[in-house]
Design goal:
- Helix 13 (about 435-450) runs parallel beside helix 15.
- The chain contains 15 helices and 17 strands.
- With about 525 residues, it is α/β, with parallel strands linked by helices.
């Protein structure tokens, strides 16, 4: 008989990217924190984020109002202006905290005392000013490694690596009064058994759900776990139809998921057809610096029109030393594949990149379920609207992690520790002898989501996708009921749930706006509203 294991903490943080690490560090001085990482601690979207973090630091050249305006324009009329203003106003303090934590953002060259040199800021699509703090072209890596080093050294933070969260435990599920989260069931992938975490508060920082698509720039862990768990626990979700496809992912057989940062275009890279001609000026006055939804649709249109496998991103007209200095990661990765970006254009295609919708929260990150918070890409705060502005994602993680920490800290003395929780019951299940079912369903799901619910949609495609996802749900739920859990099964169960939410959201929006383009509804409505889904 396997040993029953129950962990105890004031706060359980599910997810180990910028949002989860920041929340843990802000709260750990006054609370015991358990931080759950599905894979190795650094294996999340934050680590692979190249571009940077948007922040107005010098109001002589730039203003918070300008950052707000750019965000609202990119969000295509669906941003919550209060949330946008709150985020932009708190950006400077978030950057200062990272600097104090040890993140080494790039500075301008040529100063006798580099400590006094101003920070080198880049500009990305949709921004009217240079306001992007970055660490070369690996900003996320610098943030992730700096924060996780602090987390691992903190005596009040316990890190559990290679643990999958399965489901949230609530008082309602336990038959108790009210409805509050009291912990979670987690699968210890190291020991291959299910354990329990009992906690006064739980925070979802699990990232997005781009793995629901066949082609994605995200690491394998982005399987919508937090969104699916929150939905099953009774939380509303919003704007799930708005999935951002990053315009420029490297198109190469040996370079799956490798993103080419928007900062390339910010520094003057051009998008070209296979014949070498530019095409973005034909689609938007901002050309390569148009928001991502416009650029991704333009690339998709040109590829389909020409029957091309890819288009090309070209920065070879810039000085070689400039390119290598500002984009060392991209230069080395491409060079290893036989592409010298200082001499030749880079083949690129769009790929699923960011989930703009998610679990509904307030300005403190609090969800509909008492004690449950959602921060970062898993959350819908109202910041991104119908399309996320470049480099607002890591910013959202930092700002709302701090807000959630302050809100939780104000309640610590008022919320008692929950009583012992029931152990996971697997007495009626057995080991699977049909793993091929998971593999087949996994492939089918991601392929039809790409074909039917991708960059351009139609009513008929969405209806086909819904029929297929409902059949998959039946099959997977039956499988889940009969066999012991595994990483692939848990992720597939969550992805199928998230896929259904995306499809229902897309079917509900009878217009084209931002990242949602439906050929049957090309018009833009005058009074747009968020798409809100409520669990039954």
């Amino acid at each position: 008989m396997k040993q029953v294991v129950e962990h105890l903490s004031d706060l359980l943080v599910i997810g180990s990217g910028a949002a989860g690490l920041t929340l843990a560090l802000h709260l750990a001085e006054n609370a015991k924190v358990i931080l759950l990482s599905k894979g190795p601690l650094s294996e999340g979207s934050t680590y692979y984020a190249q571009g940077g973090i948007a922040s107005v630091f010098d109001d002589k050249e730039d203003t918070i109002e300008s950052h707000v305006a750019d965000t609202l324009i990119a969000g295509a009329g669906l941003c919550d202006e209060t949330v946008v203003t709150y985020t932009a106003a708190n950006a400077k303090s978030a950057i200062q905290w990272l600097i104090e934590s040890g993140v080494a953002f790039d500075k301008e060259e040529g100063f006798a005392n580099q400590d006094e040199a101003p920070y080198h800021l880049t500009r990305e699509g949709g921004h009217s000013h240079r306001r992007i703090f970055h660490a070369a072209d690996a900003t996320g890596k610098a943030v992730q490694l700096t924060l996780q080093e602090r987390v691992l050294a903190h005596p009040n933070i316990t890190v559990l690596e290679r643990f999958n969260a399965i489901d949230l435990i609530t008082t309602k599920k336990l038959g108790l009064s009210g409805n509050r989260v009291v912990g979670a069931y987690v699968w210890n992938r190291n020991a291959e058994h299910v354990e329990t975490v009992r906690a006064r508060f739980v925070a979802l920082a699990t990232g997005g759900s781009s793995k629901v698509y066949q082609y994605t720039s995200n690491p394998d862990v982005t399987s919508g776990d937090g969104i699916a768990m929150a939905w099953r626990a009774g939380c509303r979700v919003a704007n799930m139809e708005f999935n951002q496809f990053h315009p420029t992912c490297l198109y190469h057989a040996d370079a799956r998921n490798f993103l080419l940062t928007e900062a390339l275009r910010g520094e003057g890279a051009y998008l070209r057809r296979p014949d070498g001609s530019r095409f973005m000026p034909d689609f938007d006055d901002r050309a390569e610096l148009a928001p991502r939804d416009i650029v991704a649709r333009a690339i998709d249109f040109e590829m389909k029109r020409l029957g091309a496998d890819c288009v090309y991103l070209d920065i070879s007209h810039k000085p070689k030393n400039f390119v290598i200095k500002h984009f060392p990661t991209i230069y080395q990765r491409c060079l290893a594949l036989g592409i010298d970006i200082t001499k030749a254009p880079i083949p690129v295609v769009p790929a699923a990149h960011y989930t703009c919708g998610g679990v509904m929260t307030d300005l403190h990150g609090q969800t509909d379920l008492n004690g449950l918070y959602a921060i970062g890409e898993v959350a819908y705060t109202g910041l991104h609207g119908a399309n996320r502005l470049a480099s607002n994602s890591l910013l959202e993680c930092l700002v709302f992690a701090r807000a959630a920490a302050e809100d939780i800290e104000s309640q610590l003395s008022k919320i008692p520790m929950p009583g012992p929780l029931p152990a996971w019951d697997e007495s009626l299940v057995c080991n699977s002898d049909e793993e091929v079912v998971i593999a087949h369903n996994w492939h089918e799901l991601r392929l039809f989501m790409w074909d039917y619910v991708g960059i351009v949609r139609t009513d008929k495609r969405l209806q086909r996708a819904l029929r297929r996802v409902q059949l998959l749900q039946q099959e997977i739920n039956e499988y889940y009921s009969n066999f012991r859990v595994s990483n692939n099964l848990l992720e597939l169960r969550n992805l199928v749930q998230v896929a259904e939410l995306i499809i229902h959201s897309a079917m509900s929006r009878k217009e084209s706006r931002g990242l949602h383009c439906n050929l049957d509804h090309p018009e833009t409505l005058a009074n747009p509203q968020p798409t809100i889904l409520q669990p039954a």
